[in-house]
Design a protein that fits this description.
The protein has 633 residues and is of the alpha+beta class.
């Protein structure tokens, strides 16, 4: 199994090592490890084992850093619920696999672990494992050998599971060829529609039929029970105009949220790192600082040689070979001391010593990419944001007392309206469905139709109908459910019966035409569209109904036909006149076969994870996962 894992070391595992070793030196995402506020909260539980907010933050930040580096335009996608869910799913899957490793007693021997670690290129010098480089890199990343080796052992065990399950995937050559032939087949198709609408003029409906339908389906024609309501609404939005903000408050908010208002501004910088652990002794720190001061003196003396000096002195292996170049980055990508320094510099500036938990940095700002947004331009936006925040705080203060008042003084909404300066509003007649749509709340309308509110004329409890908006309602008038009269609905019934009869005629015409075509006869009155060549991914404008049936048709004999009754439109005839295989080329077939086998292996892995999930109790705090606080860095 270790050989299988080692075979992948240039792919997934190599990326893991680079993440563990290189990324911290490059200073991407270190904030995620330093901000622990609220980190103990649980965003999910897997059979009792928690996934903390901090783990979720770290995973989101890792993804953010990678996107920021590879394609900054994609960073906005991190706000989508799908991406957030996928990140949490990966953490859950890792928990499940870890439990399976223990349950199934997977093993990695000390010899296998040692062989793997000593073969990693990050620890090699001159083609051989270097104990000195190994110790140095672990020390700079604040990891002991036992911590790193335990980490690697755990990852190798997980890789055993990941590699083992897809390896079980098997399909015979006959099945593979059959799947490829169908999946990559092209068919020349034409369709003809026999439309219900074309038969409407041919049908007649007697009033006796309409009356009979009404008598049989009276329950369908009932007017639901209805109410007239009065209600009071308290919302944070209505409080905004009453809130005040000062210039100092706006400036403070701008300074504390600089990253939020940075626009598309990024910085391109290089650095020289003289590394020293935050846990190092005072003597070691003093020695590192002395060395950094000496290097800074050389840099100040010969600024043009910054790249040369970075290659010579920098202990950041991720950037030293590139002359200290860190590329471009936005706010939030670097540790705070580094970020504060680089975003206060002008192009061409060289900083003094900047200390972080990784040692001493000497920074050179190469250029500013994009443009930030100044305070004056953003002041109206910031003041609006502050007013909204104050309105939210005021709403939170008042929500509990508002709820208590409409409950305690339940025979009238006027006391609450007077106390909070909101009007008592009234509705027209509303059914349950109308009210749920009007208030955007099923809960409120459910309360309206309870005996306490409907018959006793009490206020409903205060219901949150949307974010930061409470509504309490009471019934002013009520109409019970009653059937509509025959005269009210007879026109609609007549139209319905006409469509039913016309549809039957269209389907009869379609089935008889299909029988004639299959017998080799010419079916008259059909308007075939011009043939189009389709495959499973390219419909060429054909409808979903057509595409869902066109590849089910037996094409042993061409032309081949099929017919589908459509209760809404009539009858659809499909004709296949030619079939060809897209994979005539051997190279294309090899590529398609590889895709097929990869897809099957992926299905095996997904099914395996699904089976593990089915046997475990998994609880997800969706609200916490989706909140900004769970991702804030």
């Amino acid at each position: 199994m270790l050989e299988v894992i080692r075979a992948h070391s240039k792919g997934w595992m190599a990326k893991l090592i680079l993440t563990l070793i290189t990324v911290p030196f490059a200073l991407f995402g270190i904030d995620a490890y330093l901000k622990d506020a609220g980190a103990g909260a649980s965003v999910a539980k897997v059979d009792g084992a928690t996934i903390s907010v901090q783990e979720y933050r770290n995973a989101m930040q890792s993804l953010r850093d990678r996107l920021q580096k590879e394609n900054p335009k994609d960073v906005g996608a991190l706000d989508s619920p799908e991406v957030k869910q996928s990140v949490l799913d990966r953490l859950i899957n890792t928990r499940l696999l870890n439990a399976e490793v223990v349950h199934s007693n997977f093993k990695v021997t000390n010899e296998q672990l040692a062989q793997f670690i000593t073969s990693l290129p990050e620890f090699q010098q001159g083609g051989k494992f270097s104990q000195e480089i190994y110790d140095k890199l672990l020390s700079q990343n604040q990891m002991t050998p036992s911590q790193f080796e335990n980490k690697m052992r755990g990852e190798l065990l997980l890789q055993q599971v990941r590699d083992g399950i897809p390896g079980l995937a098997f399909t015979s050559s006959a099945v593979e060829n059959a799947v490829l032939n169908v999946e990559h087949q092209q068919r020349e198709v034409s369709v003809a529609e026999i439309k219900t609408a074309d038969f409407i003029s041919q049908v007649k409906v007697d009033q006796s039929e309409v009356q009979a339908y009404y008598d049989k389906h009276k329950d369908k024609f009932k007017v639901p029970e209805q109410v007239k309501l009065e209600f009071v609404m308290m919302s944070a939005n209505t409080l905004i105009p009453k809130m005040q903000t000062t210039e100092d408050e706006a400036k403070k908010f701008y300074n504390e949220n600089a990253a939020k208002f940075q626009g598309n501004e990024q910085r391109h910088a290089s650095h020289i790192l003289i590394g020293v652990s935050a846990a190092a002794s005072p003597e070691a720190k003093a020695e590192a600082k002395k060395k950094a001061e000496q290097v800074l003196a050389e840099v100040k003396k010969s600024p043009a040689k910054f790249a040369e000096l970075a290659k010579k002195y920098s202990q950041d292996p991720g950037s030293a070979e590139k002359g200290g170049d860190l590329g471009t980055f936005a706010r939030g990508s670097m540790v705070k001391p580094f970020e504060e320094a680089v975003f206060s510099m002008k192009p061409g500036d060289i900083s003094g010593l900047v200390q972080s938990d990784f040692g001493y940095h000497i920074i050179k700002l190469t250029e500013i990419v994009g443009q930030g947004q100044g305070f004056d331009a953003l002041k109206p936006q910031i003041r609006a944001e502050l007013m909204y925040q104050k309105a939210l705080a005021k709403f939170s203060e008042q929500a509990e007392t508002f709820s208590a008042m409409v409950y305690e003084q339940s025979t009238s909404l006027q006391p609450a309206a007077d106390a909070y300066g909101v009007p008592v509003q009234k509705t027209e007649w509303l059914s349950y469905a109308d009210g749920a749509k009007f208030f955007k709340s099923d809960k409120l309308m459910t309360l309206v139709f309870t005996n306490e509110v409907l018959k006793d004329k009490r206020n409903t409890e205060a219901v949150e109908v949307s974010n930061n908006t409470l509504v309490s309602a009471r019934v002013v008038d009520y109409k019970p459910s009653a059937p509509r009269s025959f005269d009210e609905v007879k026109g609609g019934i007549e139209d319905l019966l006409k469509i039913e009869k016309a549809t039957k005629l269209a389907i009869d015409k379609g089935t008889s035409s299909l029988a004639e075509l299959k017998d080799g006869k010419a079916a008259g009155g059909l308007d075939w569209i011009a043939p189009v060549t389709v495959d499973r991914k390219n419909a060429q404008g054909l409808t979903d109904l057509t595409m869902s049936n066109v590849f089910k048709i037996d094409t042993t004999k061409l032309p081949a036909y099929a017919g589908i009754a459509d209760s809404k439109k009539g009858y659809l005839l499909i004709k296949v006149t030619a079939v060809q295989n897209k994979l005539a080329d051997d190279e294309a077939k090899k590529a398609a076969l590889l895709d097929l086998r990869t897809a099957i292996a992926s299905e095996y892995s997904s099914a395996y994870i699904g089976a593990l999930k089915a046997n475990k109790k998994i609880l997800v705090n969706t609200r916490l996962m989706m909140s900004d606080g769970a991702q804030a860095q």
